[in-house]
User: Fold this.
Amino acid sequence: MGKTKSDPKRFNKIAYTILLIFLVLLLVGIVITIIKLRILRKEKQSEIHTVNNVLSKQQKAYDTELEEIEHLSNSIDNIKNIENSIENIKKEFFENAQKYEKIVSEGKGSKKIAYITIDDGPYTYTSAFLDILDKHDILATFFLLGKPDNKYTPVYRRIADSGHTVANHTYSHAIYEGLYVTVDSFVNDVLKQENFLFNKTGVKTNILRFPGGSTSALPPYRANILKRLRTHNYGYVDWNVSSGDAGEKPTREKVYNNIINGSKNRNIIVILMHDYSWASLSALPSVIEELKERDYIFLPLFYESCMIIK
Amino acid sequence: MKKATILILLICFYLIGSFVFLFVEYSKYSDTNNKYITLQKEVDKIHDKLRIISDEKAKLKLEEETVNNEKKIQIEQYQKWERQNQILKDLIK
Assistant:
């Protein structure tokens, strides 16, 4: 009887103990899970920090790439429209040239102006003249004749492409073969050359140099020629410094001395040279160097220049 | 027996508290994990965008090179005029 009485009590005790153990284990399990979750959360937070860094770096890289793409697109657009940009900068250049020429003609300005003009081309030496001008990064003026031989086509093109002023020196240069006989013969020759040069270079000329200089057109004709040329918007220019390369037996030294001596006491000089002259070609580098030493800058002639007679 | 019942009740009370705490902790972990997943997705997205933009940049560079070659003479002309113009600008100042 005593045994049967104590059994439910024992059973209850065991049940309580089991329940207690179960509950304690459950509690421990929960606590471990909480700790694990905390550890995992901290790990995730640290990963988030790393990912955030990566993200911000990638965002920066993306922004940089975007900027570069914008820059590239602009650059491509600019290159595609470079012809317009050239026209604009040329316009600005000649406006500035006109302003500076005015300053120099008033005796001011830290540099004087030299206009190198090269007549009668293209000739065999024209490319060599262009090489020297390119090497010194200066612009000049070419008074060109009409030479239909195809071998000169690239030379005409190069003169224009290099930025030198393409100017009219008549088509024929036939001083002794009727060029100056009548007003029409002269003006027609000029207009023929204008057409010729336009076809060769795409440049419409508006500056003329009379073959042999403006005095070659005798007074009765000259006034009428000028009147007619003005209707075609032409101006002309002679020179105030001659290289003397068209004279007898010109040498490098003679050409050099003629130009350097001729430039003395002049703020604006227009130098006459010919691109058939070996003497001028060989003197040109030292002439450029010396004139630079003497504070000259080199400009190409332009219609608005005070040296162009209209 | 009373003591045992009290002990069990106490443990149950702790258990309930622990469950609440567990739930809160899990929610926090879940939020953090979601945030991590979102960020990771963003990283993947921007990575894709970077790849696309890099391809586009490569294309543009090629185009720039082609256009540069096509307009080489004009570019040199422009640079020459720019240099000449700068000389005048400096003198006029």
